[in-house]
TrEMBL record:
<comment type="function">
    <text>Catalyzes the condensation reaction of fatty acid synthesis by the addition to an acyl acceptor of two carbons from malonyl-ACP. Catalyzes the first condensation reaction which initiates fatty acid synthesis and may therefore play a role in governing the total rate of fatty acid production. Possesses both acetoacetyl-ACP synthase and acetyl transacylase activities. Its substrate specificity determines the biosynthesis of branched-chain and/or straight-chain of fatty acids.</text>
</comment>
<keyword id="KW-0444">Lipid biosynthesis</keyword>
<dbReference type="GO" id="GO:0006633">
    <property type="term" value="P:fatty acid biosynthetic process"/>
</dbReference>
<feature type="domain" description="Beta-ketoacyl-[acyl-carrier-protein] synthase III C-terminal">
    <location>
        <begin position="235"/>
        <end position="325"/>
    </location>
</feature>
<feature type="active site">
    <location>
        <position position="280"/>
    </location>
</feature>
<dbReference type="InterPro" id="IPR004655">
    <property type="entry name" value="FabH"/>
</dbReference>
<keyword id="KW-0808">Transferase</keyword>
<comment type="subunit">
    <text>Homodimer.</text>
</comment>
<keyword id="KW-0443">Lipid metabolism</keyword>
<comment type="similarity">
    <text>Belongs to the thiolase-like superfamily. FabH family.</text>
</comment>
<feature type="active site">
    <location>
        <position position="250"/>
    </location>
</feature>
<protein>
    <recommendedName>
        <fullName>Beta-ketoacyl-[acyl-carrier-protein] synthase III</fullName>
        <ecNumber>2.3.1.180</ecNumber>
    </recommendedName>
</protein>
<keyword id="KW-0276">Fatty acid metabolism</keyword>
<dbReference type="InterPro" id="IPR013747">
    <property type="entry name" value="ACP_syn_III_C"/>
</dbReference>
<dbReference type="InterPro" id="IPR016039">
    <property type="entry name" value="Thiolase-like"/>
</dbReference>
<feature type="active site">
    <location>
        <position position="112"/>
    </location>
</feature>
<dbReference type="Pfam" id="PF08541">
    <property type="entry name" value="ACP_syn_III_C"/>
</dbReference>
Length: 325
């Protein structure tokens, strides 16, 4: 029987920091509105690095930390809704950059649940017994899909990347999971639609490239559906709620963390947060949080802690993993 283990973590963000005050000089908003509604104070915004550049920096750090030869990597999965291009995939670009010549690579698209879905997929690849080592990276340059004249979305998002090295292990670290989608509610959060505009099209199919969100609907979805699914997962898996050391939820809004903690009856102190510095980085938010808190020494790899990771967002998609680190 093969099991998978998170053996290294890393993150990388573009150096340029854009504060709420910077944004309030460009649009009709204020630090007070943004902080009180979301908790966000600043975000990192790329000047020219694309998604694969951020993801490649994470891959390089993971290899350095693990002192691994890139030829030992079996697969690379990049979760993203902002790939450099549809083809080649962002993961293929990372593979080329780090010269992981033995790895297969692909992108996975599940918006803000992307990292959780990718980690679950990677765990199954390793549990199959066929593969030993994989890189699982969440990476986004959301700033290229933002309509910077729309204050209702422009203040929320940031760019960044984070990831893990997943390795084969002899004992079990992935304790439980639940993954969900509801495509019937997909229109409440959209981006990246290109029109069918061939010489043969009837012209009815239109572009909808920029990120658009019905914030209130997504907020309510996060509080209701996501809370319910976390509670059910904890109940079904028979993991005692007190044995969960930390909750790493998608970093969209500090009020969502407050409300979910209350709904599921968990200690709010256990909910880690960093959206204050990074904003919502979609598929990158959970691995950045994980890597940053390992760097701070609060999360300890090989420390026997149990964490619950939850992503939620476009699709709609949502899902959680309970993992020992
Ligand atoms: N600055 C100042 N005022 C603003 C801004 C802004 N940046 N944006 C909106 N407003 C105004 C609105 O125009 C509105 O004004 P009005 O009452 O005169 O019409 C007022 O503020 C209230 O707007 P709401 O949208 O009702 O504000 P709300 O309290 O719902 O907060 C927010 C909005 C922060 C977006 C919230 O709904 C939210 O966090 N939603 C969830 C987002 C989320 O979780 N996304 C996760 C998935 S993301 C992904 O998958 C890519």
């Amino acid at each position: 029987m093969a099991f998978a283990k998170i053996s290294q973590v890393a993150y990388y963000v573009p150096s340029q920091v854009v504060t709420n005050d910077d944004l309030s000089k460009m649009m009709d908003t204020s630090d007070e509105w943004i902080v009180s509604r979301t908790g966000i104070k600043a975000r990192h915004i790329s000047q020219s690095e694309d998604t694969s550049d951020l993801a490649s920096q994470v891959a390089v750090k993971l290899l350095e930390k693990a002192q691994l030869d890139p030829l030992d990597i079996d697969f690379i999965i990049v979760a993203t809704i902002t790939p450099d291009s549809m083809m080649p995939s962002t993961a293929a670009r990372v593979q080329a950059f780090i010269k992981a010549e033995n790895a297969f690579s692909f992108d996975l698209t599940a918006a803000c649940s992307g990292f959780v879905f990718a980690l679950s997929t990677a765990e199954k690849l390793i549990a199959s017994g066929r593969y030993q080592k994989g890189l699982v990276i969440g990476a986004e340059v959301l700033s290229k899909t933002i309509d910077w004249s729309d204050r209702s979305t422009a203040v929320l998002f940031g760019d960044g990347a984070g990831g893990v090295l997943l390795e084969k292990s002899s004992s079990e670290y992935f304790m439980a999971e639940s993954l969900h989608s509801d495509g019937s509610r997909g229109e409440s959060l959209t981006s990246g639609k290109h029109a069918i505009s061939s010489p043969f099209s009837d012209g009815k199919n239109r572009d909808n490239y920029f990120l658009e969100m019905d914030g209130r609907t997504i907020f309510d979805f996060a509080i209701r559906d996501v809370s319910q699914s976390i509670s059910k997962l904890i109940e079904d898996s028979h993991v005692a709620i007190d044995s969960i050391d930390y909750y790493l939820l998608h970093q969209a809004n500090i009020r969502i963390l407050d409300k979910i903690a209350k709904k599921i009856g968990a200690d709010r102190e256990k909910f880690l947060a960093n959206m204050m510095q990074y904003g919502n980085t979609s598929a990158a938010s959970i691995p950045i949080l994980l890597a940053e808190y390992v760097e701070k020494g609060i999360l300890k790899l090989n420390g026997g802690q149990t964490i619950l990771m939850t992503g939620f967002g476009g699709g709609l998609t949502w899902g959680s993993l309970i993992v020992k680190i």
